[in-house]
């Protein structure tokens, strides 16, 4: 593992612990060059499907894109990074459990919408306005009315 401080390739593992219910191993490492310590996370490489975009392009499933989208939607909201990470994990797991070699971007987007709907209604509407490409205030208001109706039914 390359040291993030001095780019030395030699290190030693000082401590290892399981994280995220055994799905990840957290390792504390010490660089043998500069003696500074840093943390790495190790997880099983899962085979995820290729995402088919609206225009037909195909690209690898990118967990970082999901995480980034959730963070943008949740910006300045009372939602912890750990909660956003957990939502990203659930989305990634559901997509993987579909067992498909290809999945439409629409399916991934809908999974994100489900998570945000449960997490925070403001974040949900933020994401929906971009994801569903609202063209005018009427579409935005329709989404808000639907949310308000669902809230009253609970």
Spatial ordering of strands, largest sheet: 1-2-3
DSSP strand content: 15-25%
Count of structural domains: 2
DSSP summary: helix tally:
5
Q: Would you list the SSEs in sequence order as H and E?
A: EEEEEHHEHHH
Helix content: 40-55%
Overall structural class, as computed from helix and strand content, comes to alpha+beta
Total E-strand runs: 6
- N-end to C-end Cα span: 50 Å
On the 0-100 scale, what is the average pLDDT?
91
Low-confidence runs = none
Gyration radius from CA atoms, angstroms: 20 Å
Overall, the morphology is elongated
Characterize the biggest β-sheet. Answer: 3 strands, antiparallel
Structure description:
Helices cover 46% and strands 21% of the residues. With 154 residues, it is of the alpha+beta class. It folds into 2 domains: 11-43; 50-153. Strands 1-2-3 form a 3-stranded antiparallel β-sheet, with no helix packed on it. Helix 1 (63-73) crosses helix 2 (81-97) and helix 2 packs antiparallel against helix 3. The longest helix is centred in the middle third of the chain and has 17 residues, at 81-97. It is elongated, with a radius of gyration of 20 Å. The chain starts with 10 loop residues before the first strand and ends with a helix. The model has no long low-confidence stretch (mean pLDDT 91).
